[in-house]
Amino acid sequence: MANEIERLLYHEAHLLDSGLFAQWLDLLTTDLRYWAPARAELFRQEEREREGERLPLFDETKASLTLRLTRLQTGLAWAEIPATRTRRFISNIIADDESNGVVFVRSNFMLFKSRSFADETILVGCREDKWSRSDKWLLRERKILIDHCTLENVSVLV
Amino acid sequence: MECLVDINSRTVSSQVFTDPSVFALEQATVFSRSWLYVGHRSQFTRGGDFIQTYAGTIPLLLCLDDEGQFHAIANVCAHRGSRICQVESGHADKFVCPYHNWVYDNRGNLIAVPRRSSPGFDKSKWNLFRAVRVATYRDLIFATFSDTISLEEYLRDMTWYLDLVLNTSSAGTEVVGTHRSVIHCNWKIPAEQFGADNWHFQGVHGSMAKLGQRNEDPNHEESFHAWTSQGHMLICVAPKTEVPTTFAAYVNELSGKGRISPLQRRLLRCTIVMTIFPNLSIVFFPGMCSIRVWHPRAPGRTELWSWALGNKDAPDHIKDSNRKQVTRMFSPTGMLEQDDLEVWARVGSNLMNMPPTFRLCYEFGAGEESPSRPFPGNTTSLQSDTPAFAFYTRWAEMIAQGEVGRNGQ
Fold first, then answer.
1. pLDDT 10s digits, B367-403
2. CA A92, CA B341: separation in Å to the nearest integer?
3. Which of B210, B303, B332 sits opposite A154 (nearest CB)?
4. What digits encode the pLDDT tens for the residues A62-105?
5. Distance between CA atoms of residues A72 and B39, nearest Å
6. How far apart are CA B379 and CA A156, in angstroms?
7. Looking at chain A, which residue has its C-alpha nearest residue B324?
8. Is the pTM of this model over 0.90?
9. Do B86 and A67 lie within an 8 Å CB cutoff?
10. Smallest CA–CA separation between B176 and chain A, in Å?
11. In B373-383, which positions are buried (b, 16+ CB within 10 angstroms) versus exposed (e)?
12. Between chain A and chain B, how many beta carbons pairs sit less than 8 Å apart?
C-alpha cells in the first residue's frame, strides 16, 4: 500500500503543478476539511498546543476551494496572471495502516514558485492527510503545517 | 531632492516610496510624532502579559503591569542593543537579555546587572527606550514617542467611524491572529489603498467584483470617501440591496441596545475600509472584519500583521463566520489579499526602477463638488484622488516640521 499512496501523492502533485484543477477537485470528498494553522514565534510546545486558537492560513471546504480555483478562470485574478510556475517535491511519506477504509498519510513538501521573470520563492511544510478508499482514493482531511512564520504571497494550493 | 508632495500639481514624487533618506526622515518625524497602534486589549488577560510588535521600525514590547498600566518599551537592550525577549507573546514579570543578562522589569526599568557592581554605575540612567505615552481608544492600544496631542484629539472625527466596529457591544471586541506577510513595496502604498482607493476594486479584484453587490453611484449618500486633516481616511460603499443575512439580524439586535445611532446603523450594511494615520487599517464587510498594521521594514519592504476583529460576546456562528471569511479573503492566502500583494509588488519594483524625477498623479477628482453627506469629516464621492492626496499632504507637513526642528529654527 505504501507504494500506492506514494503514487497517489505524486499524481496529485502533478495535477496541481500542471493546472489540472478540475481533476484535482475530483480527488476531494464533499465533506473535506482543508486547513493550515498559522505559525507563531513561541516555544515549541506552546506553539503546538495553541495552534487551534490562532487564525488559520487556510480554512477550507471543497466548495471554498472550488471558488478559489474558479476565480483563477475569470482572467482577472492578478496574483496568477500569468500562472505561477510551480514545482513541488513530496517526500518523507509515512502511511499508517488502513482502518475502516481511511489511511493517515504524512508527507513533507517543498514547493518552488517562479513568476514575473525573476521572482522566485520556496514554500516548505508538512501535510497530515486522511485519505479514504472507495472505488478510488479520496482526500477527506488535510492539515498543512507551513514552516514560515511570515509568508510571501500564497496564491497556490498545497 | 525633488519636491516630495506638490500641492499645485497634485503629484507625489516616487522618492516618497523609494528613497532611504526619506524613509529615515519619516521615522524621525511622521512615526515619532504620531499615535501608533501597538496592540489590542484582548491580547492581555492579566498583569505581566506582553506581546511583541513594532512601532514604526522600532522592535517593541507592549507590557501590562500589575496596576493595569500598559508600557511600550523597545525590545532592545540599553547595553549592546540585543533583543531582550524572543517570543511573540507570553507572561513575564521581568526580562533577562540573553547577551549579558541585564535584567529589566516590564516597565522597561533596568533592575539588575549580574555578577559584580561598578562604582558610580547608575542603573536608573540605563532604562529601555520607551514610548512617552500609551493610551487606549475602546480596546485599541496606541503609543507615541512624542509629547503630542491626546489620542482623542488625534482620532477626533474618526472615533464615530471606529465605533462602527468597536462599540456595538458593551462587552467590547477581541482579535484573533496573527497573520504575517511580506509586501514588496513601501508601507504607504497599502495604507493609502486601504483608506482611500475604492477605485482599485474593479481592477485588482476584478475576479471577485463580479460576485459582489456594490453600489458605486457617485451620488449615493452612503457610497463615499471621508478624510480628516490628521491624515485619516475612510471608504464606505453601499450594497445594491441589503440582504437579510444572519449578520444583519445580529446588527439589528445590537442596534436595539442603543450603543450606536441610527445613522451609524445605516453604514453597518456597507463595506467600510479605513486607515488611521499613519499605518493602521481596518476593513469591514458585513460579517467580516480584519484589523491590520503595515509595518515599515525598508523603503521597498513592508510587513503586514493582521487579525480578525469582532465582538467578544458575539454568538459562535458569527465569530466562526468572521474568522473563516478573514482567512479566505484577507490572509496571506486570501482571495482579495493575493491580488493586492501581487500588484503592490509590481508597484514597489517599478517605482524603485524609475528615475527620481518620476511623479505619481493624484489629480483625479480635484475641484469636484460632491453632494454633502451627514457623516463626520470631509467627504467626497467615490473614485477621487483627493482623500489620498490629503494623506500625503499631512505626511509632508510632518516631514517639513521635522526638518525645521532639525535645523534648529
1. 888 889 999 999 999 999 999 999 999 999 999 988 7
2. 32
3. B332
4. 999 999 999 998 889 999 999 999 999 999 999 998 888 999 99
5. 35
6. 39
7. A59
8. yes
9. no
10. 6
11. bebbbbbbbbb
12. 107
